[in-house]
Design goal:
Urease, subunit C, domain 1, 9-stranded parallel sheet, single chain, binds N-(iminomethyl)-L-glutamic acid, 381 residues, TIM Barrel, binds fe (iii) ion, 13 helices, 36% helix, globular, 2 domains, alpha/beta, 7-stranded mixed sheet
Amino acid sequence: MSSLLIDRIGLLVTHEEERPEREDAALLVVDGRVAWIGDAGSGPAADERLDADGRCVIPGFVDSHSHLVFGGDRSAEFAARMAGERYAAGGIRSTVAATRAASEEGLRARLAALVAEMHAQGTTTLEIKSGYGLDVETEARLLRLAREVTPETTFLGAHVVPAEYAEDRGAYLDLVAGDMLDACAPHARWVDVFCETGAFTVEESRRVLEAGMARGLEPRIHATQLGPSSEAVALAIEVGAASLDHATFLSDADVAALAASPTVVTLLPGVEFSTRQPYPSGRRLLDAGARVALASDCNPGSSFTSSLPFCIALAVRDMGLTPAEALRAATLGGAEALRRDDVGHLRVGARARLALLDAPSYVHLAYRPGVPLVDRVLSLA
Ligand code: NIG
Ligand code: FE
């Protein structure tokens, strides 16, 4: 048995039902789990003591949407967008070519560097998708590599139709729903699809999600990023998707339908930032009673940020969330989007995954954008 008492916490966010945050607090960790929460100076004896010296302690971020296994660089595409070009799904194909050409060692090293970047910025649980291989062997390789760093792996063979199948998308769908899923399902928990103009139709998406579900994978969906689609929203709800991600274009009826469903809506403000699309209103979703998560979507095309503090700042500044709501969405919301109840909060029993901020309050995450405020990260279990 090993124990650690974190004492003299200026502001502790636990997300407990009755009392989600408390001032002048202490927290005891035993064998990697939160074992006790109370007032500063009143904690039980422990093997080790960490003096937070008035710092704010928050649950580690749960980044429920990322694409971290890829090769190549698309900074020129970003620069062109900032000069007025529009974002289109087709850019994915250039990363596919670079990813197929990369060595396994090169992909693993890049992945490790991005995971370290995330961890240093407070992320302690993350999801990773495939989707830049788009052939049986490469998709399986990407998922194997992702599994080395997280159990939350997602098969996204239906990201776009790769160039070699441009004239026969039916054959590509047969492959995704057949041999590719057979090779990938053992390495994945989730099945996802990019249901969008330029990627896959609603009917094609249904087929892929159902094929994944038939192999025991749980569904999630990329939709309403590039334009509205009430059909895609209805599909997400119908198949029981854990999360609908992007939600850049939703009608009031879509918002009401999502709010009445268990499907989490995952906002990805890094995408709006780096594609110059309009930010959707997170306020409207919360006011309607929808469950909301906030994630990075870290990928080389539409959002190459690994920083949830940056996403929190955008969600507060441009999506109408309060700092407390944005923090909740980036922790508890992400956990809900991944159907995890052991992370994203610091209630007794939770995994001791947390971040100490070099600030008296988490409000500073939005108030001081771009400043590296994460002082120390613990991921003890
Ligand atoms: O989530 N939307 C689809 N996939 C990624 C972008 C991929 C890319 O442009 O490379 C996303 O934004
Ligand atoms: Fe994505």
